């Protein structure tokens, strides 16, 4: 079971003088349980692509299926939960509970089951249960974004799709959001992140897909990504490349600070051992 | 993404280069002519003028058709109202409703009037950038004694250009909110009341926030409503004088005819 995209093309304002091709014959597959990172510059078609995953946009040509279900089916929307850009601006409920329960209640969940779902979702998003009775507008920007995340999680999606989840967040909220995403992924949800800042998600990702002007320019693992694409690379990978140039025996496919630390310590020990002899 | 309704299409035709004041006054005069037109000969003449103008500004006719399309429902209602509720010679009847010859005539002319009003307005907005329209209106309003009610023509122009500036923004946030709530399973057709609340609440709160930001930005750049210079210095040229002569001719032609 996976999200399968086949020969998908999409044009905005089709048939007018402002026609713009956003996706051009895109084919890809996102497996169940994967953490997939979709990168590319602004205007490369990333957001257009993920809007197809839950059926907000219908394919003009080609097809999109989610776990075997055509994306035009309304039930796809809770299988593939989409958190849009700046989700804190989309809150409307008088209380956090009302807002988070909006999704599941649209799919006919009521009463105790609904309350349970909201409580679970708030916990998954890293918020306390007692926040439910507050007004979402009394919270900080970072918390509002987590409430919006809980609103999507409450639908218990198989795929959680996030469009630029870290844009406009301060470093602290950013790293806690990354930790939350990691946990969600470990709990079995497939996560799809769309971002033009590929580097910060590389350590978490199983697969990287790059879009360029509406077509897939790269599709592979993070290690393949840092080996094959010249830019942009995480700073830690650049550091390792510099160390290699200086004659250190370290790997060039390091993505996280922890791995880099281990690798550098190993290299230093090896070097120390070499000098002792 | 982009709404094509009444949008500006950059170009370099005579109509594009005409002074915005000439176009605004022209639109007003043409509107009077359209509202005054009652015979099919008049309508034909107006259609002819419109065709000539469209050809001269070298824009596809499709652009103007799109400007009228959102109003089709309104036009249909308008036409049917006239068709059924005008007294006169009966042509055809359907149970208690009857279509009269006069109704048919009146319905057609009234609908055509509105279509032409909209088409000519679309012609102006297609060939004049919003900022030029506002500066034109600002200049036209300047002689009015607005200061006695506490505002200046600059204030009016600023309000207009700000509202024009906010329309696409408002539309953009509306689309993204609708998409967000649809993503969360909202079925607009089934639950219209829920849909209104879930979209309107963040739309209004977001817009108020944005308006405050713009006001602050203007304030911090020392916005003053008086004595501002303009990017578009307006001077009537030969083209404008010729246009005015044509307006006079048009009015005379239609009133005498």
UniProtKB/TrEMBL annotation, chain A:
<dbReference type="GO" id="GO:0016887">
    <property type="term" value="F:ATP hydrolysis activity"/>
</dbReference>
<dbReference type="InterPro" id="IPR015856">
    <property type="entry name" value="ABC_transpr_CbiO/EcfA_su"/>
</dbReference>
<keyword id="KW-1278">Translocase</keyword>
<dbReference type="GO" id="GO:0043190">
    <property type="term" value="C:ATP-binding cassette (ABC) transporter complex"/>
</dbReference>
<dbReference type="InterPro" id="IPR050095">
    <property type="entry name" value="ECF_ABC_transporter_ATP-bd"/>
</dbReference>
<keyword id="KW-0472">Membrane</keyword>
<feature type="domain" description="ABC transporter">
    <location>
        <begin position="3"/>
        <end position="238"/>
    </location>
</feature>
<dbReference type="GO" id="GO:0042626">
    <property type="term" value="F:ATPase-coupled transmembrane transporter activity"/>
</dbReference>
<dbReference type="InterPro" id="IPR017871">
    <property type="entry name" value="ABC_transporter-like_CS"/>
</dbReference>
<dbReference type="InterPro" id="IPR003593">
    <property type="entry name" value="AAA+_ATPase"/>
</dbReference>
<keyword id="KW-0547">Nucleotide-binding</keyword>
<dbReference type="InterPro" id="IPR027417">
    <property type="entry name" value="P-loop_NTPase"/>
</dbReference>
<keyword id="KW-0813">Transport</keyword>
<dbReference type="Pfam" id="PF00005">
    <property type="entry name" value="ABC_tran"/>
</dbReference>
<comment type="function">
    <text>Probably part of an ABC transporter complex. Responsible for energy coupling to the transport system.</text>
</comment>
<dbReference type="InterPro" id="IPR003439">
    <property type="entry name" value="ABC_transporter-like_ATP-bd"/>
</dbReference>
<keyword id="KW-0067">ATP-binding</keyword>
<protein>
    <submittedName>
        <fullName>Energy-coupling factor transport system ATP-binding protein</fullName>
    </submittedName>
</protein>
<dbReference type="GO" id="GO:0005524">
    <property type="term" value="F:ATP binding"/>
</dbReference>
<comment type="similarity">
    <text>Belongs to the ABC transporter superfamily.</text>
</comment>
<keyword id="KW-1003">Cell membrane</keyword>
UniProtKB/TrEMBL annotation, chain B:
<feature type="transmembrane region" description="Helical">
    <location>
        <begin position="67"/>
        <end position="85"/>
    </location>
</feature>
<dbReference type="GO" id="GO:0005886">
    <property type="term" value="C:plasma membrane"/>
</dbReference>
<keyword id="KW-0812">Transmembrane</keyword>
<feature type="transmembrane region" description="Helical">
    <location>
        <begin position="241"/>
        <end position="256"/>
    </location>
</feature>
<protein>
    <submittedName>
        <fullName>Energy-coupling factor transport system permease protein</fullName>
    </submittedName>
</protein>
<keyword id="KW-1133">Transmembrane helix</keyword>
<dbReference type="Pfam" id="PF02361">
    <property type="entry name" value="CbiQ"/>
</dbReference>
<feature type="transmembrane region" description="Helical">
    <location>
        <begin position="105"/>
        <end position="126"/>
    </location>
</feature>
<keyword id="KW-0472">Membrane</keyword>
<dbReference type="InterPro" id="IPR003339">
    <property type="entry name" value="ABC/ECF_trnsptr_transmembrane"/>
</dbReference>
<feature type="transmembrane region" description="Helical">
    <location>
        <begin position="24"/>
        <end position="55"/>
    </location>
</feature>
